[in-house]
């Protein structure tokens, strides 16, 4: 049986107002098999709840970790009754129904605990280590839910890491202003002569622009591996969904290379998103 509708926010949560509609990528679109969409929705609701706790500026680090510990206990079955963790209970039921392991959710929780205590990243490898926990589990969950991939997790991990860095670049000013959190590699910042305070300016300095472009180069490298994901998915419909997301990622990288995220939010218009969807599906069909 499909999982029940996602529970409303509880007092344990810290809703940000973000929804599936505000993400860069489609979440459980019509390309996903109808029988699996409720499970994807349950996973998204769980991930959104724990992400919002990690990003809540009004919560102390200790309070964030305590709440996330509660979500982990509910997800793994150590707590099966506390109503404040209803989204984790629903996720546990969904995992039991589908046979997907809880490891992906546990790793996401670890990422948001890390967000509670770490606000700077020394270098690209340090940032990729964070993305392995904060982004890769999303793709791994979807691959497991859909029966696997011929290529393992590699291309999915690469796509998810690229999407995470793209999001970091889109939100770099807001993350700094509201959370004093900077995901830009500090060694690249130092080498370029960029200062963290540059993120508070109305436009990127030439030094900060060099760091942003370096991050985009890193994303392009990741996307060379990610391009193989659609053809590797065993489930045809997930292959088409991932082809759309791959196209979205390439398009956003192009936008960020030409636009300044400090001057305004860099995002796709509805028309551009529709073009990505059509182009992605077409390419996905051809490559399969």
Which key phrases capture this entry?
HSQ_synthase_HpnC; transferase; Squalene synthase HpnC; Farnesyl Diphosphate Synthase; mainly alpha; 288 residues; Squ/phyt_synthse; 13 helices
Question: Can you describe what's shown?
Answer:
The protein is mainly α and 288 residues long. It is 63% helix and 0% strand. The longest helix is centred in the last third of the chain and has 23 residues, at 236-258. The radius of gyration is 19 Å and the shape is globular.
Secondary structure elements and their pairing?
Layout: H1 37-55, H2 61-76, H3 86-98, H4 103-117, H5 124-134, H6 136-145, H7 154-170, H8 172-179, H9 186-192, H10 206-226, H11 229-232, H12 236-258, H13 270-287
Helix pairs in contact: 1-3, 1-4, 2-3, 2-4, 4-5, 4-6, 5-7, 6-7, 7-10, 7-12, 10-12, 12-13
Sheet having the most strands = none
Strand content: under 5%
* CATH class descriptor name of the largest domain: Mainly Alpha
Rg value: 19 Å
Number of strands: 0
- C-alpha geometry: globular
Which structural class should the secondary elements be placed in?
Answer: mainly alpha
What is the fourth-level CATH superfamily of the largest domain? Farnesyl Diphosphate Synthase
In the CATH hierarchy, the third-tier topology of the largest domain is known as: Farnesyl Diphosphate Synthase
Q: Which series of helices and strands comes N to C?
A: HHHHHHHHHHHHH
- Span of the ends, CA to CA: 31 Å
Number of domains: 2
CATH arch. level architecture of the largest domain: Orthogonal Bundle
Total helices: the number is: 13
Portion of residues within helices:
55-70%
Unreliable spans are: none
**Mean pLDDT across residues:** 94
């Amino acid at each position: 049986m499909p999982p029940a509708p996602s529970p409303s926010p509880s007092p344990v949560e810290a809703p940000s107002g973000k929804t599936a509609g505000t993400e860069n990528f489609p979440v459980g679109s019509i390309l996903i098999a109808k029988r699996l969409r409720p499970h994807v929705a349950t996973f998204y609701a769980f991930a959104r709840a724990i992400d919002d706790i990690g990003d809540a500026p009004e919560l102390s680090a200790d309070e964030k970790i305590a709440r996330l510990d509660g979500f982990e206990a509910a997800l793994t079955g150590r707590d099966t009754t506390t109503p404040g963790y209803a989204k984790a209970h629903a996720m546990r039921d969904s995992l039991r129904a589908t046979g997907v392991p809880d490891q992906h959710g546990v790793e996401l929780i670890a990422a948001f605990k890390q967000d509670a205590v770490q606000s700077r990243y020394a270098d690209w490898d340090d940032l990729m280590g964070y993305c392995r926990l904060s982004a890769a589990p999303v793709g791994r969950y979807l691959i497991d839910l859909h029966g696997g991939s011929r290529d393992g997790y590699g291309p999915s991990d690469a796509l998810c890491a690229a999407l995470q860095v793209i999001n970091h670049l889109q939100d770099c000013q807001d993350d700094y202003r509201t959370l004093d959190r900077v995901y830009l590699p500090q060694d690249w910042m130092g080498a370029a002569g960029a200062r963290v305070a540059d993120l508070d300016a109305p436009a990127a300095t030439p030094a900060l622009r060099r760091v942003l472009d370096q991050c985009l180069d890193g994303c392009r490298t990741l996307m060379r591996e990610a391009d193989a994901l659609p053809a590797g998915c065993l489930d045809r419909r997930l292959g088409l969904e991932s082809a759309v997301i791959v196209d979205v990622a390439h398009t956003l990288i192009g936008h960020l290379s030409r636009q300044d995220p400090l001057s305004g939010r860099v995002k796709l218009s509805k028309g551009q998103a529709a073009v990505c969807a059509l182009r992605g599906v077409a390419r996905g069909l051809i490559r399969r």
